[in-house]
From TrEMBL:
It comes from Herbaspirillum rubrisubalbicans Os34. One of its GO terms (molecular function) is acyltransferase activity. Its main location: membrane. The keyword Flavoprotein does not apply. Keywords: Acyltransferase, Cell outer membrane, Membrane, Signal, Transferase. This is Phospholipid:lipid A palmitoyltransferase.
């Protein structure tokens, strides 16, 4: 890769990320059913209307958030030594989203993200996250536990066509700055498949 072509590729990646982010509210049809705030009166709103309203509320009322990624840890018992030597664990990446602290004191987020995947190719993600927030005594810190559902695009799956992925999610930090963890479980009993912990940061602006 030449130095001059890298900014162009980064610009193209950002354009793709932006397009995915604009569509991320559509994913709420699946994941909002898991969030307690999604249970409204069915006679008043359809599920589709609830989804659009909630996504719009997060985007309009939420705080802007910057996402920074750096680590993708592959399970040492899942991958062979030879495979681990081939894989990239420096999952550098950047993302943007909106996070809303809702009336229950929990966090709801819409986000778009691009990182370097295990094979050093761009991996695009856009979706929704819900975290139940638990303050830690009087430390100013809080623990978050929840889940995320996203659309993901990778070169090694479905010819880069976006596909849905639900993942468990956890975080620790302050309301404005958190270290976050998303876990990809082992997908089969075979070696070299799944069991990846993605570690990233979220800073609200």
């Amino acid at each position: 890769m030449t130095t001059t072509s890298q900014p162009r590729r980064q610009a193209a990646s950002f354009s793709t990320l932006t397009a995915l982010l604009r569509r991320s509210g559509l994913l709420g049809v699946t994941v909002l059913a898991l969030a307690p705030a999604a249970h409204a009166d069915d006679n008043q709103y359809s599920l589709w209307q609830q989804t659009k309203d909630r996504a719009a509320n997060i985007w309009n009322q939420g705080d802007g958030a910057l996402y920074l990624s750096g680590v993708a840890h592959h399970g040492r018992s899942t991958y062979s030594h030879e495979k681990l030597n081939e894989l990239n664990e420096h999952a550098w990446g950047l993302g943007y989203g909106k996070t809303l602290r809702n009336e229950r004191g929990d966090d709801e987020s819409l986000y778009g993200f691009v990182i370097k995947d295990s094979h050093r190719h761009p991996q695009y993600m856009a979706g929704y996250a819900y975290e139940w927030v638990f303050p830690i005594a009087k430390t100013g810190l809080e623990l978050g536990l929840g889940g995320t559902a996203m659309l993901m695009s990778r070169q090694d799956y479905f010819h880069s066509v976006p596909f849905p992925v639900p993942l468990p999610l956890a975080s620790i930090g302050t309301q404005k700055a958190k270290i976050m963890f998303a876990y990809v479980p082992r997908l089969s009993s075979n070696k070299n498949n799944g069991d990846v912990l993605l570690i990233f940061g979220r800073i609200e602006m």
